[in-house]
Amino acid sequence: MLSPKQIRFAQEYPLDFNAAAAARRAGYSENGAKVTGCRLLTNPNLKSYMAAKQAESAEKFEIDREVIVGQIIGAIALAQSQGDGGNMICGAVELARLVGFYGAPVAKSVVPRAETDAVRAKYDALSDQELMNIVAGKSPAPAS
Length: 144
Fold this sequence. Notes:
This protein is mainly alpha-helical. The protein has three domains: 4-60, Arc Repressor Mutant, subunit A, CATH 1.10.10; 65-98; 110-144, no CATH class. It is 67% helix and 0% strand. The protein has eight helices and no strands. The chain has helices at 4-16, 19-25, 33-41, 44-60, 65-81, 85-98, 114-124, 128-135. Helix 1 packs across helix 2 and helix 2 (19-25) packs across helix 3 (33-41). It is elongated. The chain starts with a helix and ends in a 9-residue tail after the last helix. The mean pLDDT is 86.
């Protein structure tokens, strides 16, 4: 059984997906809102309640993931036809988030080579002024 505050949290959380803010709006302590919000998101009963409410909303509005993806793709195409790069990017970012591209970061493995170490050592030996000269397209020798 959920408390009235927990139900209120479940109603507030989807507004901005900010657990601390939802906890504050639900009436939990300002000081512990961040911890309380995180704790509430792991509560199995609350998770079930929130999933059921989300399913109700999806059924009520006759939407599902495929519908949303299709609408975003349509919006991206419209933005492209209007030459609106900013909204194309916004749509692409939202689409990528929705399909899970922003999950766990992908680890990149870098294998150091002897040549890389030699070049790095050369640059590490340069002074700040010499590095600034290189960036400015000048000779690495410090200006006199």
